[in-house]
Design a protein that fits this description.
The protein is an alpha/beta fold and 204 residues long. It has eight helices and seven strands; from the N terminus they run αβααβαββαβααβαβ. It has a seven-stranded mixed beta sheet, sandwiched between helices.
């Protein structure tokens, strides 16, 4: 949240995946009522000029009832008719059918001086090695369709009108015995975050 706060504290903000539900485990209502510490709420509290987007119509309806500014739309194809100073795409690109189309659409929705902030799980997370040894395969979210790492995602960003300017490793609290290798190589961290700017000469 520290990096996001730096870019989302002022200007207009678009937060993607604002409901953050997992249909296989809980409904949107359960998520919003019993797990209220959503990134979207934190950003909206920081900056009232924040619009949330999610494909979950029921979740968006519940957020609107709670007084939040949120609409139901598909991030790959939507056209909101406006641009934003900051777009936050937290843990969403790995759920999409077409990440390249998504990024090109975000470029069309970002101002020329704006910033796109993406975070996603790291396929080389050290804990996955332990899971492969124990279960015979890595742990994969039931809705994930692709893996990204900083190298491949940076290449995709460059192809879709962006220039990566910052990369951060993300490590939530985990068992030290399973994650100690990240202390020596960042590539073993649980996830990562990239901040990207519009590429020079690309107008979206």
């Amino acid at each position: 949240m520290t990096v996001i706060r730096r870019f989302a504290a002022s200007g207009s903000v678009l937060d993607l995946g604002c409901v953050d539900s997992r249909p296989a485990r809980h409904s949107a209502r359960q998520r919003l009522e019993y797990k209220p510490n959503l990134l979207f709420r934190s950003i909206a509290q920081l900056n009232p000029d924040t619009l949330g987007i999610d494909i979950d119509a029921e979740g968006v309806r519940l957020l609107a009832q709670q007084g939040h500014n949120a609409i139901c739309a598909d991030v790959e194809t939507m056209d909101l008719g406006r641009r934003f100073d900051c777009i936050v795409a937290g843990e969403i690109i790995e759920h999409l059918e077409n990440p390249g189309r998504f990024l090109r659409n975000m470029r069309r929705h970002l101002t020329e001086s704006g910033r796109l902030i993406l975070s996603t799980p790291n396929p080389f997370y050290q804990g996955q090695v332990w899971k492969i040894w124990r279960y015979g395969r890595p742990a994969v979210h039931e809705d994930h369709t692709n893996w990204q790492d900083p190298t491949t995602l940076s290449a995709l960003l460059r192809r879709t009108g962006f220039m990566p300017i910052e990369t951060w490793w993300v490590q939530p609290p985990r068992s030290f015995l399973k994650t100690w290798k990240r202390l020596f190589r960042g590539y073993f961290s649980h996830g990562f975050l990239i901040v990207a700017a519009p590429a020079a000469g690309d107008t979206g």
